[in-house]
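To whoever picks this up:

The parser on our side crashed when reading a file containing two proteins. I've narrowed it down to the boundary between the first structure block and the second sequence. Both blocks are reproduced below exactly, byte for byte. First block:
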Amino acid sequence: MFPLSGNALDAVGVCKRFRFRSSARRGTLKDLVVRRVRLEKRYSVVDALDDVTFSVRRGQTLGVIGENGSGKTTLLRVLAGITKPDRGEVRVRGSVAPLLALGTGFNPELTGRENAMIELLTLGLSRAQAKSHLEDVIDFSELSEFIDAPMRTYSGGMTMRLGFAVATRVDPEILLIDEVLSVGDERFAVKCAAWLADFKQRGKTTVLVTHSTPTVASQCDVALWLHRGKAAAFGEATGVVHAYVQAMREQGPGVHAYQVGAPELLPVVRLPLIGDVRQEGHVTGAYVDGWTNGSLEFAFEPIRDVRGWTIRATIPVGMPDSGTLSAEVDGKLVTSAPVLPGEMLLRCDMHVAGGRSAKMRIVSSPTVNHHTMGISGDVRDIGARIDEIVFDH
């Protein structure tokens, strides 16, 4: 039935059907077509998963994409053992930790500390192990100031922080993630992404459900596209993403109405400059969400002498191997390096005297268009995202 291989996960012909008592009224066209509901005597039936087959090798990251209601979360619940398939087989080799709906099991009347302890015990740790990990959970969540307050006083972001921090204390072979990468603020989300990257580097396996096709294209090795409970495509991530995006485009403009809301260029924006420097005047080339149009220009004035700086940037998916990231100061090229998609550091050792204004231009070339490339619905031509510039004094 299952091949003897280095696979961490195998699913063969998995089917899952949900039955619920139907109302007295007859099913509408929407029920029968859009929601895939069938009537069997007094019960309505939904085939959430229908003959789904795929495999994931150890150390790979699988991205699962599809429209709402396509069966993505049901699949994760089957892989986690929360729900049993009606037909077909699933073989899981190694321990599994699901990150599904972070924090939903927390008791709002108990403190964050008490909830974290209970959650660690629930995940299978002994009392001694849970106690030894508790301070690490608090440190990772960055909630020490609030950890002894009842969780009914926590915001949604704080609750998700604590839930993710608890999950990091478990060291499974396979991690199942359902749309939980955007936890808390942007800085904490970057911290979580770094933890997940380290998890992958240690040879662990991840299954990620997300609506972000660029995330699947950049972070996943293979992808599974679910459509109305069936596996529409499975294989190399970029190819599956391209097929999915093309299919969504063919459904008509209503599906991609969000494209018209692409972020505009900002005439003024505060840049993430770290150090004793002051940003001056207008910034050109920056979008609301932090990406650039390929040429970011701004002026800065050091409060005290600068001896160099490091630019931390994110290179978009689709940037060719011939791409470069460079920086100019007052029209002079001071540093340049080749790029690959993902995070990178660009170092510049240059003295700028305190109190003297300077103009910096950061250029990423060429720009990429994810809409044209079939990776996502983003219609902009984008260059590198400048995450921070750290000045040395």
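<<boundary where parser fails>>
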Amino acid sequence: MNKQVNLIKKIISDFPEEFNIEIYKNKNPHLMNMNLKELNDHFNFYGYNEGLPCNNINNRYDFIKLISQDKNILEIGPLCFPCMDVKRDNVYTIDYFSQEELKENYKNDPNVNINKICKVNYVLKDKVKYNQIIPKIFDVCFSSHNIEHVPCIITFLNNVSSILKDNSYFFLCIPDYRYCFDHLKEQSNIFQVLNSYYNKQDKPSAVNILEDKYYRTHNDSNLHWNKFYNSIRNIFVSINEKEHFIKNKKNDIIKDIESIKEMYELSKNTYIDSHCWKFSPVSFKNIIEILYETGFIDLKINRLYRTLKGSNEFYVILEKN
């Protein structure tokens, strides 16, 4: 038993630290003359929010390299952008739609090459539980920009847990809403998460769909980061940007009100893909910790590598405990 525990601890320790003070000092030359206390204080008060590098995870490629490719892996919703080697026999995929349905759904999307859409090993459809359609248990599950699409986070995480071995991991690349096209939407909170669970939400709601249509902005993360730095100096930059954007959408909403009304009916029976959730590293950590500590899920945060300046995503390793 002790050998098994020691092995698990060794595996966990193989993941890079979230904050390494020497890396923080060496990767940020303007901090070279600070002592250890000053470096810690600087990171807590400035560096964290400013996206300064402080560990060995510099991008998603560094994050993906943490995954042992010889393990049994399930990748969720890769579409035509798989991060795992889906040609390998030990790598499987799952999606709400079949490969042919995905090709039909995305045939008019210029950002998707439908000829490169991956084979889907397991099709969810209206089945709620992964273990009803997946006969295997996996060492690793991987998801890139998927969790923000799921109608119910609690159901989703419990589904993933049901097909993971004990002491195994769920790796996630998650968009930071502040630096992508969700920038002007409201951040998700724990009560919305609980609401979707108790309402048995299994499709994106009309609110999710309509927000995606009317409150979506550009996806240039560098521009969003520049706005963030400006807002540090002048908080009204951020407030005025949002108010101006929403004001400009008023006429579109008035003009489209009949189709908006129809969407509230259509969304009850039709799955229309949308961003259901908007996370920052802090908000995601808070939600997962509440859900784990109150028994809603059995996946806990092992590592969280927060968003670096210029990026629009952060990286999380959840551990099945």
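After patching the parser it read the second block fine. Residues 235-255 form the longest helix (21 residues). DSSP finds twelve helices and seven strands in the chain.
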